[in-house]
Amino acid sequence: MKEKILDISKDLFLNLGFKSVTMDEIASNLGVSKKTIYKFFKNKTELVKGVTDFMFDTICFGIEGICQKKLNPIEEIFSIKRMVMQHLNDEKSSPQYQLQKYYPKIYISLKQKQFQVMQDTIKENLNRGIALNLFRKDINVDFIARIYFYGMNGIKDQEVFPLTNFSMNELMLNYLEYHLRGIATEKGVIELKKQLTQK
Q1: What's the domain count of the chain?
Q2: CA distances from 34 to 12, 26, 96 (A)
Q3: Could you give the CA distance from residue 176 to residue 183 in angstroms, rounded to a whole number?
């Protein structure tokens, strides 16, 4: 039952936003009473934390699966982007922005965990890209990995990038092209163009 609560809550939060979904709506969608939810989560904040941890673990598992395929590093980045967008329902309700605004402690904790995972994944991706002559040999891997993380988080700021002007998919594609053109060799740019036609 706990996993079912997390799964239904995740869909509601992603489609309608963390703020607007009530415990009554979640109970109604589950076809149970609120008491049943409270057996597993003592309040909405605890449920939000449970859902964000569940989503984080699911996405990490997806990233590990993609990395094990040993795709070329540019294809790998686009494959991860597609998988994340699929899990986050195209981020229609900008979950990360809402977390930051209404559940700041959960947001800070999640951001720290994301940073650790992304640093390891991106550094490995960059080093393989250099070895395969897709990325320039003179790039500072540690700097690029950090700026990539902050850029990916920055495009989710709705005050700067309102979803009325840009879809999250469009923002991520534009950011990936911006990131990769800055570090790619001629060979890397050819692979980037190929990936951009697939989206």
Answers
A1: 1
A2: 16, 8, 26
A3: 11
Looking up residue 28, the CATH number of its domain turns out to be: 1.10.357.10
- Structure pTM? 0.88
Structural domain for 117, as ranges:
2-198
Tracing tokens 């990395």 back to the chain, one arrives at 67
Number of neighbours of residue 183 by Cβ within 10 angstroms: 19
Q: Where are the alpha helices (DSSP H) in the chain?
A: 2-16, 23-30, 34-40, 44-68, 73-87, 95-102, 104-131, 141-154, 168-183, 186-198
d(CA 191, CA 176): 13
pLDDT in tens, 39-62: 999 999 999 999 999 999 999 999
DSSP label of 164 = T
CA 91, CA 14: separation in Å to the nearest integer?
7
Residue type, 81: K
